[in-house]
Specification:
This protein has 382 residues and is an alpha+beta fold. It folds into 3 domains: 49 residues, no CATH class; 66 residues, no CATH class; 205 residues, 6 Propeller (Neuraminidase), CATH 2.120.10. Helices cover 33% and strands 26% of the residues. It has 7 helices and 12 strands. Helix 1 packs across helix 2 and helix 4 crosses helix 6. The chain is extended.
Length: 382
């Protein structure tokens, strides 16, 4: 009877479930009710568990896929919105810059819809070609001869010059350009225009750690910031130099100012950090970062290091910082080594704002005194 039971149930269900016009083939509740009655008539001891339609089973199995597809649709919509905002911004900026052109064209007879159509076409072309602009994975550095793994480049950093519409890319590497030798790491740079094309000297050298030809002295992990007021860059790195009283293996933070064309300006490889006593390689500074503040025209350079200031002991790494200005270098409270870092020798210790304020105040006092004397003189003559 067990083997024939499914056939009998099927026949009974087909006979009792309405299948004609107006019947709902997906009415699970009606089907379950009929099935329970049929099974109860055939054998009251047969249990009827959870009954679901095939559509419900399919929906339950697709929950995860539907969730993933929904997320993809949401992210796709957000990406489309951001792209639309970007195209709008570019188009609006281009339109604003071409206001004079639009006025001239309308003055000589151009219709409004012609100009509107032109900008719409440009926006569509920009949207369609945006993903294909630029060379894929274009090479920037040329360290040593190609095919020789003894020469390499690592850890790039980049800053954008909004005045010149170009980039400065810096990195550390080892090159075979004389008088450098293999494994002598130095900081190099390359200027790029707004489209990624190389400008100026190719892979120009920035740092000079130790004597040339000696791989015991190196520079590592550069960072760079652009100064919009002076239109120049500050490149900072950690390195090992032989400038007295430093010794081999004594890592400190160094910096180099570069003009907009990549040429060095100011003091060469000036020292910013002062970790521990000079001449002791057990104390060091590494992994610098730099940011420029426009309000005061100064840089903040930070790094981690091992110092002997106060209660600190050897191998107790902490974060240190140094404020650096083009006209003065002011140590941060709690800065490194002996209350601050080595100051730039080419920089004055005085803030130029203070003398300027004093000069203005003296001028005001002098002007008031002259007016007072003039007033007294006219009274006496009267």
């Amino acid at each position: 009877m067990t083997e024939a039971l499914p056939d009998k149930v099927r026949e009974a269900l087909v006979a009792q479930i309405p299948m004609g016009y107006g019947a709902d083939p997906w009415d699970v509740a009606q089907t379950v009710t009929v099935a329970r009655d049929v099974l109860h008539e055939m054998d009251p001891l047969i249990p009827l568990g959870t009954v679901r339609s095939l559509r419900d089973v399919w929906r339950a199995s697709m929950v995860r896929q539907e969730f993933v597809l929904t997320l993809l649709a949401v992210f796709g919509a957000m990406a489309l919105l951001l792209a639309a905002v970007g195209v709008y911004g570019v188009t609006a900026q281009a339109t604003r810059k071409r206001t004079q052109e639009i006025g001239i064209r309308m003055a000589v007879g151009a219709r409004r819809h012609h100009i509107l159509l032109q900008f719409l076409v440009e926006a569509v072309v920009l949207s369609a070609a945006g993903g294909a602009i630029g060379t894929n994975d274009f090479r920037l550095s040329d360290m040593g001869p190609d095919g020789d793994t003894g020469y390499f480049a690592f850890n790039p950093a980049v800053a954008f010059n909004a005045t010149a519409d170009e980039y400065l890319v810096v990195w550390y590497g080892t090159d075979n350009t004389a008088p450098l030798v293999a494994n002598e790491n130095e900081i190099f740079g390359q200027r790029l225009d707004g489209t990624g094309g190389e400008l100026g000297a190719n892979d120009f050298r920035i740092s000079d750690m130790g004597p040339n030809g000696n791989s015991n002295y190196s520079a590592y992990d550069p960072v760079v910031a652009w100064n919009a007021i002076a239109n120049e860059y500050l490149v900072v790195w950690h390195g090992d130099d032989n400038t007295a009283p430093l010794v081999n293996g004594e890592g400190e933070i160094f910096g180099q100012r570069l003009d907009a064309a990549g040429g060095e300006t100011g003091t060469n490889d000036f020292r910013l950090s002062d970790m521990g006593p000079d001449g002791d390689a057990n104390f060091y500074a590494a992994d610098a970062a730099v940011a420029w503040r426009s309000m005061t025209n100064e840089y903040l350079v930070v790094w981690y290091g091992d110092d002997d200031t106060g209660a600190l002991v050897d191998d107790e790494n902490e974060i240190f910082g140094q404020l650096y200005r083009l006209f003065s270098s002011i140590p941060l409270a709690g800065g490194g080594g002996g209350g601050g870092c080595t100051l730039n020798p080419a920089a004055t210790r005085h803030d130029p704002v203070i003398p300027l304020l004093m000069l203005i105040a003296a001028g005001c006092l002098l002007r008031r005194r002259v007016r007072r004397q003039a007033s007294l003189g006219s009274t006496a003559c009267g």
